[in-house]
Amino acid sequence: MTETTQSSGLAAPSAIGEWIGGMRRSAEFIVIPLFALFVSASLFSLFLLALGKSPQTFFELLWRGGFGTEFSWQNTLVRTAPLILTALCVAIPARLGLVIIGGEGALVLSGFTAAVVALPLLSWAPPFVVMPVMLLTAAITGALWIGAVGALRHYRGINETIASLLMFYIAVSILNFFVEGVLRDPSDPNKPSTAPIGPANMVGEIPGLHVHWGLAFGVVIAIVLGIVMSRTTFGFAARVTGGNVRAARAQGLPVGTLMVSATMIAGACAGVAGYFEVAAILGKANGSLIAGYGFTGILVSFLARHNPIAIAPVAVLFGGLAAAGGLIQRRMGLPDATVQVLQGLIFVVLLVSETLYGRFRLFDPEARG
Amino acid sequence: MSDILISRRRLLKTAAAGAALGVAPGLGAIGPAAAAGLTMGIIYVGPRDDFGWNQAHAVAAKALKAVPGITVVEEENVPETIAVQKTMESMIKLDGAKLIFATSFGYFDPHMIEMAKKFPDVEFRHAIGLWQADKHPKNAGSYYAYLHQAHYVDGIAAGLSTKTNKLGFIAAKPISSVLTNINAFALGVRKVNPNATIQLIFTGDWALPVREAEAANALADAGCDVLTCHVDSPKVVIETAEKRGIKCCGHNASQASLAPKGFITGAEYKWETIYKNFADLLAKGQKLPNFERGGYDKDYVQNTAFGAGATDAAKAAATAAIADLKANKPYVTGPIKDNKGKEVVAAGKTIDNYDNFLETTNYLVEGIVGSLT
Fold first, then answer.
1. Which of A32, A313, B26, B71 is the most exposed, having the fewest neighbouring CB atoms within 10 Å of its CB?
2. Which ranges of chain B would DSSP assign to H, the alpha helix?
3. Residue A286 carries which DSSP code?
4. How many angstroms separate the CA of residue A217 from the nearest CA in chain B?
5. Residue of higher predicted confidence among B275 and A160
6. Where is each ABC transporter substrate-binding protein PnrA-like domain found (chain B) (predicted)?
7. Do B89 and A71 lie within an 8 Å CB cutoff?
8. Domain ranges of chain B
9. Short-list A79, A70, A6, CA closest to A314
10. Closest listed residue to residue B114, CA positions, set B131, B137, B91, B144
């Protein structure tokens, strides 16, 4: 290995040398987050010891509840599905240097519009009409919602982080206003909801997995966006803009168009997540849409370093954490917030670990030996 | 509302809970505590120490844990999403639960129904009366306590403890189960004090502490000298009332300790009666009723012991009202008008305590200042 690297590192790098260099660079993006995970797990163990609980039991239960049985896997994957899509809502704008944290708002509002657009169709249209119309409506709603954040940023200079967060509260208010008002299903006197979309229009499960099709959609969209961001001129232009907006402008890149389209793609992803929450799980729109997937998605995206391909496995990790949370609560008598403490630790340690990039010669393809 | 936004609060709470748990003996064992006997799972939508709805159930669960042969597994803060389905499944598959109590409104449809279809040999019960024999699976059901009876008693005690004849009610949402409690309180107040009015404020959601505090202060500013509420956790309302030097009535669980000076009484669920009855039935190998409900007559509700805010007249009248309710005497008798002047119960007509009429309330009775929209 060493020999190959050395020889290829000379005058003209061979193909294999480039490959190894690439591997080294990628290794940095895997080793450092894994190290961060290890550090946060160690810190969390100290936290547990301070509470008088056994870290070993905790991690055993974490494994069993998240991944240890067939059911645990289903439980994990069900929670993974929306996380992939909401993480993409953070990751794509992040490539342009935009920090969007309001994906939850796009999810909530899109789930709502999807449920509402179905209402006039229910009496006459077959499922193969209703379902795509709902999906499309959700994606467009999300695209417009987060796209508006991108546009506000570009045209009015409004901070996209704050704008997207505040728009989450607007989305919730819009949902509540209609669901508790004109669009409320009169047949349900208690929990305010829109009228149900009916079992025929519900999305089924992936055969053999007992997880709805949202998971497959999420994985496919993540892979497609991964390719778009790394192999197309759009992705390249986005990365240049993220690196240095002024340089990108000087190069004649359409920065405004890029920002608006990236935020629209992001919003559409969160919108699709909202569609599946309604069409695969709830069957109607109501307050249950506000489940926090959009916020956990931020953590997923940061841990995946905003790489769409890496988002899927990281989402599985967070899905597993959430899935095991209940078991840990029940068996160890720990409060529900325990798993959130772990999530918070991971996030903080991860942000700190950002400073480690580029500090190790081991990962530098230019370095000799 | 969202995980990340309240994580700091939760973290603090965890630390506090952790400190308390730290002294408790017994590190978590990995297997469910008992192999034989019955394992039941109880699921809460919020924290178990919220001074409200969830705490009322959690206190009952504690009573169940003392029953030999019964293992109780509990999970708190479970949202009304697919998460609750997975929690039920996890309790069934990993803990061996044979009986699931789902205590939040939104758990029922579609989540509990789905799980009841999937696991026909497990019994599911939901803590609000939504189950219908013709529509829902036979291994599902509901149980409910008529808390409005205790609110009626609250009203009687409050009506005789006010000096300004203005009382304040802070409610979450204008839905039937809330309106029934508001109306019951107003009927109690007006029965003993026909000149009193009840100022009503809706906050819009189950847990909005800031808005609840604003509403409580606004009502106090408007001259109300007794406050009560129907929100998930009455803590803020009760504490604000006490701070303002006015009286209060509780809701859901005991808040007496929060207002040592002004507490009158409070409407409390007594879920342990229901849970214990269910446990006894199961121990005998009998099936649980699909639809179980009741009030004072079945010992399913109670009023908190009178506090320093209750006058002697209030104590006497409230105690008499409790005795009537225990004998299942109806408390809703005509004529009753709504607050727009329309007659809702004709003169001479009596509504039985078990009449479904009370569960489909969509009006406010006379004497309440406020509207549904």
1. B26
2. 7-22, 53-65, 82-95, 113-118, 147-159, 176-192, 209-221, 235-243, 271-283, 312-326
3. B
4. 18
5. A160
6. 40-290
7. yes
8. 37-140, 147-268+302-369
9. A79
10. B137
**Total number of residues shown for chain B:** 373
Which positions in chain B touch A71 (Cβ < 8 Å)? 89-90, 93-94
Measured between alpha carbons, how far is B286 from B281 in angstroms, rounded to an integer? 5
CA distance B73 to chain A (A): 6
A283 in a structural domain: yes
Around Cβ A145, how many Cβ atoms within 10 Å? 30
The CATH architecture to which B37-140 belongs is: 3-Layer(aba) Sandwich (3.40)
Inside any domain, residue A39: no
Instruction: Note whether A335 contacts B93, CB cutoff 8 Å.
Output: no
Tokens found for residue A63: 């494994």
Q: Quick check: do B37-140 and B147-268+302-369 share a fold? A: yes
CATH number for the domain harbouring residue A243? 1.10.3470
Length in residues, chain A: 369
Residue partners of A203: CB distance under 8 A and separation at least 6: A131, A212, A213, A214, A276, A279, A280
Enumerate residues 125 to 154 of chain A having a beta carbon within 8 A of any beta carbon in chain B.
Answer: none
Between chains, do B75 and A326 touch, taking CB under 8 Å as contact?
yes
pLDDT for the residue numbered B5: 43
Rounded Cα gap, residues B368 and B224, in angstroms = 13
Q: Report the share of chain B in percent with pLDDT over 70.
A: 90
Q: What is the ipTM of this complex?
A: 0.72
Average predicted confidence (pLDDT) for chain A: 88
**Is pLDDT at B31 greater than 80 in this prediction?**
no
From CA A68, how far away is CA A368, in angstroms rounded? Answer: 43
Which of A60, A295, A344 is opposite residue B2, by nearest beta carbon? A295
Beta carbons of B154 and B185 less than 8 angstroms apart = yes
Tell me how far apart the alpha carbons of residues A242 and B25 are, in angstroms, rounded to a whole number: 54
Instruction: Report residue B275's pLDDT band, with 50, 70 and 90 as the boundaries.
Output: confident
- For B4, the token pair is 């990340």
Torsion-angle region of residue A234: left (phi > 0), alpha (psi -120 to 50) or beta? alpha
The answer to pTM > 0.90 is no
Q: Residue A111 domain-assigned?
A: yes
Q: Tens digits of per-residue pLDDT, A212-237?
A: 999 999 999 999 999 999 899 999 99
Q: Per-residue DSSP letters for A106-170? A: HHHHHHHHHHHHHGGGTTT--HHHHHHHHHHHHHHHHHHHHHHHHHHHHHH---HHHHHHHHHHH
Residue of B nearest to A298 (CA): B4
Q: How far apart are the first and last CA of chain B?
A: 24
B75 and A331 in contact by Cβ < 8 A? no
For residue A189, cis peptide bond before it (omega within 30 degrees of 0): no
| pLDDT surpasses 80 at A361 | no
How many Cβ atoms sit within 10 Å of the Cβ of residue A28? 18
For residue A350, tell me if it sits in a domain.
no
Structure tokens at A136: 């499309």
Is the previous residue joined to B110 through a cis bond, with omega within 30 degrees of 0?
Answer: yes
- A306 vs A89: CA distance, rounded Å: 10
Range B147-268+302-369 classified under CATH 3.40.50.2300: yes
Residue B108, class by beta-carbon neighbours within 10 Å (0-12 exposed, 13-18 middle, 19+ buried)?
buried
What pLDDT is attached to residue A192?
80
Q: Output the pLDDT for position A9.
A: 44
Token look-up 């109501």 returns: A286
Domain count, chain A: 1
